[in-house]
């Protein structure tokens, strides 16, 4: 569906076009600074695009090296996410069984337990949706990061820097998220939010104790380990990717330190 070779070839052609437009502007007999100033910029842009096209393989290697340095792999990450979703679905099915048992039982606490289980249904539905969304994002990053990098180079190659900011952002996003997103389980473990391990300690003596344990232990842990901390981690990665994208695109105004690249 996406031909990376064609993207890079088109980017290289646009880079050459940008270079020759720059040389043409430099040779125009028009003493207007507003036009003449684009000549050196376009020449440098053309050379920069050529360098990016040639460095495409090196960019992919850099992402893999950073991921290896972090000690994370996509295989372990997908295994972790799938196990998390399976356990959440199993808990949801377990709650349905408890709901049916409580519904046929009679007693002063049955109504209270039914309302609590109903709240747990909605919470687990939201948690499952969040985990599946994380899995979809990870799949997109894993399968299309190479395409995003090639597309980013193609956007940067458009003359007069029309797509330079978007292209740099795509490349920065692909590098950072491909390298660091698989580290999320390790990040949670380092903060003490070991979701999979703590889900195996649910008591099985009676329905009341199970509901109380789920409300007081499991649900807060899942909210912290599947919503709060992952969102915080994604925000951190987004900030880093914005900085990397700004450095690649050459917009120093977005960086915390004044560095001008081309």
Automatic annotation (TrEMBL):
<feature type="transmembrane region" description="Helical">
    <location>
        <begin position="136"/>
        <end position="158"/>
    </location>
</feature>
<keyword id="KW-1133">Transmembrane helix</keyword>
<feature type="transmembrane region" description="Helical">
    <location>
        <begin position="165"/>
        <end position="184"/>
    </location>
</feature>
<feature type="transmembrane region" description="Helical">
    <location>
        <begin position="227"/>
        <end position="248"/>
    </location>
</feature>
<feature type="transmembrane region" description="Helical">
    <location>
        <begin position="16"/>
        <end position="35"/>
    </location>
</feature>
<dbReference type="InterPro" id="IPR049688">
    <property type="entry name" value="CedA_arc"/>
</dbReference>
<protein>
    <submittedName>
        <fullName>Uncharacterized protein</fullName>
    </submittedName>
</protein>
<feature type="transmembrane region" description="Helical">
    <location>
        <begin position="98"/>
        <end position="124"/>
    </location>
</feature>
<keyword id="KW-0472">Membrane</keyword>
<keyword id="KW-0812">Transmembrane</keyword>
<feature type="transmembrane region" description="Helical">
    <location>
        <begin position="66"/>
        <end position="86"/>
    </location>
</feature>
């Amino acid at each position: 569906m996406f031909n990376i070779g064609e993207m890079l070839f088109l980017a290289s052609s646009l880079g050459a076009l940008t270079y020759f437009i720059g040389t043409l502007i430099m040779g125009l007999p028009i003493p207007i600074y507003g036009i003449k100033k684009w000549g050196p910029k376009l020449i440098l842009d053309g050379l920069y695009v050529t360098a990016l096209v040639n460095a495409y393989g090196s960019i992919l290697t850099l992402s893999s090296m950073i991921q290896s340095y972090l000690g994370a792999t996509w295989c372990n990450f997908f295994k972790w996410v799938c196990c998390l979703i399976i356990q959440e679905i199993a808990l949801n099915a377990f709650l349905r069984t408890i709901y049916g048992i409580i519904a046929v039982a009679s007693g002063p606490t049955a109504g209270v337990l039914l309302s609590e289980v109903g709240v747990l249904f909605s919470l687990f539905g939201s948690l499952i949706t969040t985990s599946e969304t994380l899995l979809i994002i990870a799949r997109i990053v894993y399968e299309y990061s190479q395409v995003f990098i090639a597309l980013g180079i193609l956007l940067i190659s458009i003359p007069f820097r029309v797509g330079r900011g978007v292209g740099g952002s795509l490349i920065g996003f692909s590098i950072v998220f491909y390298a660091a997103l698989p580290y999320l389980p390790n990040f949670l473990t380092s903060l003490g939010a070991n979701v999979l391990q703590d889900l195996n300690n649910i008591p099985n003596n009676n329905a009341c104790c199970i509901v109380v344990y789920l409300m007081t232990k499991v649900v807060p842990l899942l909210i912290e380990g599947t919503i709060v901390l992952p969102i915080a981690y994604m925000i951190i990665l987004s900030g880093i990717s914005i900085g990397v994208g700004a450095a690649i695109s050459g917009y120093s105004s977005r960086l915390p330190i004044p560095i001008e690249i081309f």
